[in-house]
Structure formats: C-alpha cells, structure tokens
Design a protein that fits this description.
The structure holds two protein chains of two kinds. By secondary structure, chain A is mainly beta. Chain A contains no helices and eleven strands. Chain A has strands spanning 4-6, 10-14, 19-25, 32-38, 45-51, 56-58, 62-67, 72-77, 86-93, 99-101, 105-110. In chain A, the strands form two sheets. In chain A, strands 2, 4, 5, 9, 10 and 11 form a six-stranded mixed β-sheet that branches. Chain A has a five-stranded antiparallel β-sheet with strand order 1-3-8-7-6, with no helix packed on it. In chain A, a hairpin with a 5-residue loop joins β9 (86-93) and β10 (99-101). Chain A is globular. The mean pLDDT of chain A is 90. In chain B, β4 and β5 (44-50) form a beta hairpin. Chain B has no helices and eleven strands. By secondary structure, chain B is mainly β. The chains are: A mainly beta, B mainly beta. The A-B interface holds A 4, 32, 34, 41-46, 49, 89, 91, 93, 95-104 and B 4, 31, 33, 35, 40-45, 48, 55-56, 91, 93, 95, 97, 101-109.
C-alpha cells in the first residue's frame, strides 16, 4: 500500500528565511502530490499540488519539487512569515480523489 | 457560502453510546470525503461520496461506522457502540469533480471524546 513520511517532525526558521519541508513516499502510482497547511483548531488547507508527470510547480511564495527517481517531494516557502507557522502535510492523491496523508511537519517561525 | 461546516464541533460520549456527526459541504461540490485524525498524525481516509453514491470505503471503517449522503448534499457519519479508540477528530472535506477535484476543502472537524 501507500505510505508517506516526512523527514523532520519539526522545523524552526527565522522570519524572512526560506523554509524547506521534505516528504518521502513509497507508492509511485499516485497521480498527484499535494501539500496542505493545518493551523491549530482548523482543518487542513490546500496549498499547492503537482501532477506526477511534472517535477516543479510554483505558486505564490511556494514551490513544490517532485523527484520521482528517489520518491521525494518538497515544499519550499520563500520569505517565511509568522503566519506560515502551522503543521504541513504532504498527501498522495489518485484521480479518484482519495488522499493518503503523511504525519506532518510543524513549522515554527521565529520573529 | 462560507465553506464546509461540521456539527457538532465537540462531542463527549460514554463508551457504548452511538454518535452521529453532520457535514455540510460547499454547495456546488459533488464530492465529499470523511477522514479521521488523531493527535500528531495526518488525516486518515475513511470514505468518500460522489453525489449520493458511496464510492470507496477504507478498511478503517468497521461495521460500527456508517456514512450516508442521501440527497447528494449533506452527509452524516454514525459510529455505533463507541469505543475509547474512536476518540479522534473527524474531518469532512468536499471538492468538485472537475479539473480541480484534488483541491479538497476541509471543515473544522468534530472532536470526539469517548470516556
């Protein structure tokens, strides 16, 4: 079956620095790879996704990189802000919409 | 439309009791998902609907769990004979079935505590 793991459960960065959150997966059959952000007391919020036939996608202040050779996914956040403090999950999704989530990395942004 | 709503937000029950949670998705979304999340872990898929049809169920969804979406709008998740291990946050999400189907919008969750 699928499994998703994050490299570090916690990450602390200085405000204004760039953040990189990493994720490893085991199943290559996923159609999409997705990053979610979850703030305390709220449900996860979609940030960005990348199709399995791509290796990079950019959004507003965020970039997702996909390396299918080593089954690795990363989320880069530029100029990290205090509002970026949250738990970040990577998820694998099929075309049917079912998503398999990893366990999350807690990002703390220090002022 | 203010997004996905879930009721109640918190539920405390005694072991052996039945509980029911409700999810109201974003009105134009025809896909609806239920997940369970325990502290420190990512959400675990339970089941999903396209309109009123339940298309997939996880093996986590034991026979004590049942979900319905009778008219293709709101959904209910019922847990019968609750056990302490059922204590978790139950999340509902919805999405369209078009090109943005993978962008799931989550509700705030229902936190269940089984005593």
């Amino acid at each position: 079956g699928e499994s998703v793991g994050l490299h570090l459960p916690t990450l602390s960065v200085q405000e204004g620095d760039n953040s990189i959150i990493n994720c490893a997966y085991s199943n290559s059959a996923s159609d999409y790879f997705i990053w979610y952000k979850q703030e305390s007391g709220k449900g996860p919020q979609f940030i960005i996704d990348i199709r399995s036939n791509m290796d990079k996608r950019q959004g507003q202040r965020v970039t997702v990189l996909l390396n299918k050779t080593v089954k690795h996914l990363s989320l880069q956040i530029a100029a990290t802000q205090p509002g970026d403090s949250a738990v970040y999950f990577c998820a694998l999704s099929t075309n049917a919409g079912k998503s398999t989530f990893g366990d999350g990395t807690t990002l703390t942004v220090k002022p | 439309d203010t997004g996905v709503s879930q009721n109640p937000r918190h539920k405390i029950t005694k072991r052996g009791q039945n509980v029911t949670f409700r999810c109201d998705p974003i009105s134009e979304h025809n896909r609806l998902y239920w997940y369970r999340q325990t502290l420190g872990q990512g959400p675990e898929f339970l089941t999903y609907f396209q309109n009123e049809a339940q298309l997939e169920k996880s093996r986590l969804l034991s026979d004590r769990f049942s979900a319905e979406r009778p008219k293709g709008s709101f959904s209910t998740l019922e847990i019968q004979r609750t056990e302490q291990g059922d204590s978790a946050m139950y999340l509902c999400a919805s999405s369209s079935s078009g090109t943005r189907f993978r962008e799931q919008f989550f509700g705030p969750g229902t936190r269940l505590t089984v005593l």
